[in-house]
């Protein structure tokens, strides 16, 4: 009698998105950037991809942090020296200059 090896569970992008509580396009971006490994089913640019459940668990464990903001899971960086910090500084400067110009006129 032959033993049948169980294939690892492969998840669709929609299933992964639901597990991570993000959009399917954000999930596709994680795959495209190489942050989340995938299995490509076929050839060509539009070939469907699947994510091995073990790779998803590895991604989750790698990105699990206590007390961090939800943006850590979305892949966005926030904090000093990042584009989020620069944008916030620009918005504060713009708001300040707008308020000052209203008082000066």
Question: If you had to describe this structure to a student in words, what would you say it looks like?
Answer:
The chain has 105 residues and is mainly alpha-helical. It has a single domain, classed as Multidrug-efflux Transporter Regulator, Chain: A, Domain 2 (Orthogonal Bundle), CATH 1.10.1660. The chain contains 5 helices and 3 strands; from the N terminus they run E-H-H-E-E-H-H-H. The protein has helices spanning 13-20, 24-32, 53-63, 71-74, 83-104; strands at residues 10-11, 39-40, 49-52. A 3-stranded antiparallel sheet has the order 1-3-2. A hairpin with an 8-residue loop joins strand 2 (39-40) and strand 3 (49-52). Helix 1 (13-20) crosses helix 2 (24-32). The longest helix is centred in the C-terminal third of the chain and has 22 residues, at 83-104. The protein is elongated and about 70 Å long. The N and C termini lie far apart (90 Å).
């Amino acid at each position: 009698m032959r033993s049948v090896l169980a294939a690892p569970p492969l998840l669709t992008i929609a299933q992964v998105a639901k597990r991570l509580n993000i959009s399917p396009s954000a999930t596709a971006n994680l795959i495209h950037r190489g942050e989340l490994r995938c299995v490509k089913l076929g050839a060509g640019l539009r070939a469907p991809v699947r994510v091995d459940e073990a790779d998803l668990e590895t991604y989750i464990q790698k990105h699990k942090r206590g007390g961090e903001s939800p943006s850590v899971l979305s892949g966005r960086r926030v904090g000093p020296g990042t584009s989020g910090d620069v944008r916030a500084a620009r918005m504060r400067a713009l708001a300040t200059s707008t308020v000052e110009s209203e008082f000066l006129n």
